[in-house]
Design goal:
The complex is a heterotrimer of chains A (about 325), B (about 475) and C (about 270).
Chain A lengths: L3 H5 L28 H8 L7 H11 L6 H13 L1 E4 L7 H12 L13 E4 L4 H8 L5 E5 L10 H13 L4 E5 L2 H5 L3 H15 L3 E5 L8 H13 L4 E3 L11 H18 L4 E3 L7 H14 L12 E3 L2 H14 L12
Chain B lengths: L21 E3 L2 E3 L3 E6 L6 E7 L2 H17 L6 H17 L1 H12 L3 H22 L17 E5 L5 H14 L3 E5 L6 H12 L7 E3 L4 H8 L6 E5 L2 H11 L5 E5 L5 E4 L5 H13 L11 E5 L3 H12 L20 H16 L3 E3 L15 E4 L16 E7 L2 H9 L6 E5 L3 H10 L4 E4 L18 E2 L6 H4 L5
Parallel strand pairs in B: 5-6, 5-8, 6-7, 8-9, 10-11, 10-15, 11-14, 13-14, 15-16
Antiparallel strand pairs in B: 1-2, 3-4, 9-17, 12-13
Helix pairs in contact in B: 1-7, 2-4, 3-4, 4-5, 9-10
Chain C lengths: L26 E4 L2 E4 L3 H20 L2 H17 L1 H6 L4 H17 L3 H5 L1 E2 L6 E9 L2 E5 L7 H12 L3 E5 L6 H11 L8 E4 L3 H10 L5 E3 L6 H11 L5 E3 L15 H4 L2 E9 L3
The chains are: A alpha/beta (about 325), B alpha/beta (about 475), C alpha/beta (about 270).
């Protein structure tokens, strides 16, 4: 839990942006920051470095937390409510998407007390189908846009992609940044693209996928996180799930530090979504522990933390059943869609 | 709120006997004087143990001498190695039992005894096992000779790990030992004696005499001891150095510290904060190399303090056997008194005391994680070893000032440096007068890495090739 | 037979690169010469000089220290007759010269022989390297006033320590003459400080001095005095080299023991990451 007395109670110093000791009124310090590569570079490279070994050890230590009984039950239900149930395959069909939406609304047909997931995440072409299925359910509809997963398309194509998805009923857009531009130091280009897509989103929430597996260093993850937040992203998301390295606990730790510091600096809260590779209840609970002990309880909410996953849901349901019945369940008792 | 439900490690795995004797010449002998050891988290009496008398220490030294002359000095390095490997394996096999017992007797969190202490104990035996038949290649000439009987006195903060640091190199080099564990934490050493039996170690090679200061004094001043190794306070170390003066006993001492943990404005702040926390709150701050003086560059002071306080509010203080506990019990009432006294002095000298809100158990010995800000070099809490979860925070402006303040102490065991600038790390590491310099990390230990102090933090090294020198006639 | 009256040498102390008389104004007679009789205050001054020299000398490159020790050998070679004139055997003088050469070479090698790269079980760069202890107090061997003296001083200073030496009480003249060699060898003032006088008088002050980091009792044959000096040294946990159990053959290979006795091992850890 963050004690805001300590976060906000200090006078800003010249480098408070490093940690976010700034009061909310200091947001204007970031005004115009996106105007040039140089300005962004000065800012992003002035962020504190991340020591790889230390960050990974912290994540590993948090992974040893032992979450049992009541805490586990609470965490499982929360994790279910945080799932962005995802299908992003070339083979996706309306039938597949309909089935997924049904599962999202009622994950465990045998147990109505199992909560619905946070959202369904599909390609833009599947948005109309999903919108129909999810209407009135309270389950959000997310769509990847902006030439997912490579991000390699002209800006106007990305904008059109986004507008189409929103028009078709998506209330959340998952965009990918151009890693090529980021790694080449063309920060303003990445910044401008996020700003443009955010504008195209209208009221829809924008999740900015950093594709951390391609950013190579935690320093880059921290910088990309800040870049996405400064440009207006509502969520920062680890991965497309389409490159070999997807979400990891330490990457998520670094991103949670970034959103924590960003809120302290600007007053604006940004969500975090690890995606890809989180398959077990045990893993999901480790993430929740990292959330709890990094950004704090304010992020322990589906509005501020999501799991981009597909197979995770069934494992959560299986573990949930085990806690309720006292014996282990099997995959045959949960729907595969 | 994400409330972690209690996750207690089962203590049914340990079998604490109501009473323990002394382990002499491979057998258990009743001690004349009996005392009790308690669980510091509950004040529950765990067992009755012996406090060895001078005569009992004498019989242990005689057993060690006899084993040295008749057995161990005639056992080849290759065979000694296999005994040590065997011990290492048994430690791994019984690791959970050892971890639980250590946490019960010492008060340290099971997460640490399980993930740090016991794995390092096994690693230490493995490391020195490998040296036993390679001593001619250690750089001390062909066929270096052992010293004979080693008298070893260890502290209560890492009972089993300090035993390993003492016994493993001693046996590898061909010495026999009489080891005295601390009076408040004898149980894992006594379990280790059982492990020696299980490993079929020849009788008398390892002897364990439990007891307090008198027992220790009898051991280190015994004329039949060829080597004295001590880990503990600087005051006792001084007394031992006087006691062995004029003898031929080889002496190594690993004593107190008041390490500076130096944070520059370009540090990886989140990891630095973890390092600060680990530096002073690891093992309740009962660590000779604890980073008990935080030196923060003034330009990031506010940020670092805010982050540190936020992080400290997450520390989970309580039941040592709960797998989620970060800070366990203070080891004894006497140590708790000392921590309280020095904290009161800190407050009365004008420093500002802060602890996060945390509820402490009603029974047992507890002290909340604490920082003092506004501390200057002149404050007693900036100079004296508190040996508890109490951090003194000071500031500096330039690298030279950081070095000057860090070195301005009679101690010289360890130091920490946090900065992203490589050349500054090396510049600092050159100038810090300390036996261990952790740069962008803290409180890391490894059997291959020599550990030990400068100045009044003692002399001699434990660990690594250097650790052999303490047990060889070189 | 010349009518000329010889100019006698005044045998003084060697402190901080200068040749002061004892502050006490005392002297004692050795081989028809008056030799300064150092006092506790001379010990104090010598320790101050030695401490002041630590930073520069330990901070000098090993190459530089080696060059200077070799320079000492050169200077000594040029004065060998003078030492023979003081009663030293030519063999001892030769050995003393060669000992400087031997230790000179160790300056940039000891860290390679006595240091280590440590293969720790984790993602860390980890090395252990020797560093000088600081100020070393030395009681020089009474019976080998040149070779013995060189054999205890050279290993202490080659690694970057500075020393305060109590010279052979009964045969101090080679020590004072060696000071003249040192003073002309580019050795910075204060690195070697030589006091002549009574060991029983000055030794306890040196052993108990809290700003001395180590003490070498090689030249204390009196077991009771050695014990009391060792006890005094415990006050600040000085590193102690005890008197030898059996007499030392100063012509034998000295080994590394006298180098490593006054070295501290520093282990440095750093994570390896991107």
């Amino acid at each position: 839990m963050i004690n805001h007395e300590y976060v906000h109670g200090r006078q800003p110093t010249f480098r408070l942006s490093r940690l976010g000791g700034m009061t909310a009124t200091a947001t204007s310090a970031f005004a115009g920051i996106g105007r040039s590569d140089a300005a962004l570079r000065t800012f992003l490279h002035g962020l504190p470095g991340v020591d790889q070994v230390g960050a990974e050890q912290r994540a590993a230590m948090l992974g040893t937390r032992s979450i049992k009984t009541t805490a586990k039950a609470w965490a499982i239900d929360l994790a279910i409510r945080m799932v962005d149930l995802t299908t992003l395959e070339g083979a996706d069909t309306p039938g597949k998407v309909r089935a997924l939406c049904a599962k999202a609304r009622r994950p465990d047909p045998a147990d109505p007390s199992a909560p619905a997931v946070a959202a369904v995440c599909v390609y833009p072409s599947m948005v109309p189908v999903a919108a129909e299925e999810l209407a009135g359910s309270g389950v959000h509809l997310a769509s990847v846009a902006t030439a997912f997963p490579s991000g390699q398309a002209p800006l106007d194509v990305k904008i059109a992609d986004t507008r189409a998805a929103v028009a078709a009923g998506a209330d959340e857009i998952d965009m990918v940044i151009s890693r090529g531009a980021f790694l080449a130091g063309r920060y303003a280009e990445v910044y401008d693209e996020i700003v443009a897509v955010k504008e195209a989103c209208g009221d829809a929430h924008l999740k900015v996928i950093l594709e951390t597996g391609e950013l190579a260093t935690y320093d880059n993850v921290r910088r990309a996180s800040w870049l996405a937040m400064l440009a207006g992203g509502d969520f920062i998301k680890t991965s497309t799930g389409k490159v070999p390295v997807a979400a990891t606990l330490p990457v998520t730790l670094v991103m949670l530090e970034a959103v924590r510091d960003f809120r302290a600096a600007t007053g604006r809260q940004v969500g975090v979504k690890p995606a890809g590779g989180i398959r077990t209840t045990k893993d999901a609970i480790k993430y929740l522990v990292v959330v709890n002990e990094t950004a704090g309880e304010d992020w322990l909410d589906p509005d501020w933390f999501r799991f981009g996953a597909s197979t995770l849901l069934n494992d959560l349901l299986m573990q949930r059943t085990k806690l309720k019945t006292g014996h282990y369940s099997g995959p045959d008792y949960f729907t595969v869609d | 709120m994400f409330e972690y439900a209690p996750a207690p490690e089962s203590r049914s795995i340990v079998d604490i006997k109501p009473s323990y004797g002394l382990f002499v010449d491979g057998e258990w002998v009743d001690g004349e004087i009996r005392n009790k050891t308690v669980n510091p988290a509950t004040e529950e009496v765990l067992a009755e143990v012996a406090w060895a008398t001078e005569a009992e220490v004498d019989s242990a030294v005689r057993a060690a001498r006899s084993a040295y002359e008749n057995v161990w000095s005639r056992t080849s390095g290759r065979e000694r190695a296999k005994y040590l490997y065997r011990i290492a394996r048994i430690i791994q096999e019984r690791s959970r039992e050892l971890a639980v017992l250590e946490s019960i007797d010492n008060g340290k969190p099971i997460r640490e005894s399980r993930d740090v202490d016991v794995p390092l104990v096994a690693a230490h035996f493995f490391y020195y096992a490998g040296w036993a038949d390679k001593l001619s290649y250690a750089g001390f000439g062909e066929g270096p000779r052992p010293l004979g009987v080693a008298g070893q006195v260890i502290p209560w903060n890492f009972p089993l790990l300090m035993l390993a640091w003492k016994i493993a190199p001693a046996l590898a080099c061909g010495n026999t030992v009489v080891l005295k564990p601390a009076e408040t934490t004898p149980l894992t050493a006594l379990l280790f004696a059982e492990i020696c039996q299980e490993a079929d170690l020849p009788p008398g090679v390892v002897n364990i005499v439990t007891g307090a200061g008198d027992t220790g004094h009898a051991l280190v001043s015994h004329p039949g001891v060829d080597k004295v190794a001590f880990t503990g306070s600087t005051d006792v170390g001084r007394a031992i150095a006087r006691a062995v003066a004029g003898s031929r006993k080889k002496l190594t001492l690993e004593l107190g510290g008041k390490a500076a943990n130096i944070v520059f404005d370009d540090a990886p702040i989140d990891q630095a904060v973890e390092g600060i926390v680990n530096g002073i709150f690891f093992n309740q701050g009962h660590v000779c190399c604890a980073g008990s003086r935080l030196l923060v560059q003034e330009s990031v002071y506010d940020d670092v303090l805010a982050s540190l306080k936020r992080r400290m509010a997450l520390l989970r203080v309580g039941d040592p056997l709960d797998k989620n506990t970060d800070i366990g019990a203070i080891n004894s009432a006497a140590q708790l008194d000392r921590i309280r006294t020095l904290s009161e002095i800190g407050a009365s000298e004008g420093a500002t005391q802060w602890s996060p809100p945390c509820s402490l158990p009603d029974r047992g010995f507890w002290f909340a994680p604490t920082i003092f800000t506004g501390v200057t070099q002149a404050h007693r809490i900036a100079r004296e070893e508190i040996f508890g979860p109490v951090l003194s925070v000071l500031t500096f402006r330039t690298p030279a000032e950081a070095v000057e303040k860090a070195n301005n102490t009679p101690y010289g065991l360890s130091a920490g440096v946090w900065t992203d600038k490589g050349s500054r790390i090396l510049w600092m590491a050159d100038r810090l007068r300390a036996g261990v310099v952790w740069a962008n990390t803290f409180n890391k230990f490894d059997p291959s890495a020599p550990f030990g102090g400068y100045k009044e933090s003692g002399y001699g090294r434990e660990g690594g090739r250097h650790g052999l020198e303490a047990y060889l006639d070189v | 037979m010349s009518d000329r009256l010889a100019v006698r040498k005044t045998y003084k102390l060697y402190v901080g690169g200068k040749f002061p008389r004892s502050e006490s104004g005392r002297s004692y007679l050795v081989q028809d010469s008056n030799v300064a009789l150092a006092s506790r205050k001379d010990v104090r001054d010598a320790v101050v000089a030695a401490r002041a020299a630590v930073k520069g000398w330990s901070g000098a490159t090993a190459y530089n220290r080696g060059q200077i020790l070799y320079r000492v050998a050169e200077m000594l070679e040029g004065r060998r007759d003078q030492f023979v004139g003081l009663g030293e055997t030519p063999a001892d003088v030769d050995a003393a010269i060669d000992r400087w050469v031997w230790y000179a070479g160790w300056s940039d090698k000891i860290a390679q022989v006595y240091g280590n790269a440590n293969p720790v079980a984790g993602p860390y760069f980890n090395i252990s390297a020797p560093e000088p202890t600081g100020v070393v107090g030395i009681v020089a061997p009474p019976d080998s006033p040149l070779l013995g003296l060189v054999s205890v001083v050279a290993p202490a200073i080659v690694t970057g320590n500075t020393v305060v030496v109590l010279a052979s009480e009964g045969q101090p003249l080679p020590a004072v003459t060696l000071a003249e060699v040192l003073a002309t060898s580019d050795l910075p003032g204060g690195v070697v400080n030589i006091l002549t006088g009574r060991v029983a008088e000055t030794g306890p002050w040196l052993a108990a001095h809290m700003d001395v980091n180590a003490i070498d009792l090689t030249g204390v044959p009196d077991a009771e005095l050695a014990r009391s000096l060792e006890e005094a040294a415990a006050g600040n946990l000085k590193r102690v080299v005890r008197p030898p159990a059996t007499p030392i053959d100063w012509h034998a290979d000295p080994g590394l023991g006298r180098l490593t006795a006054f070295l501290e091992t520093k282990t440095v850890w750093h994570p390896k990451g991107v």
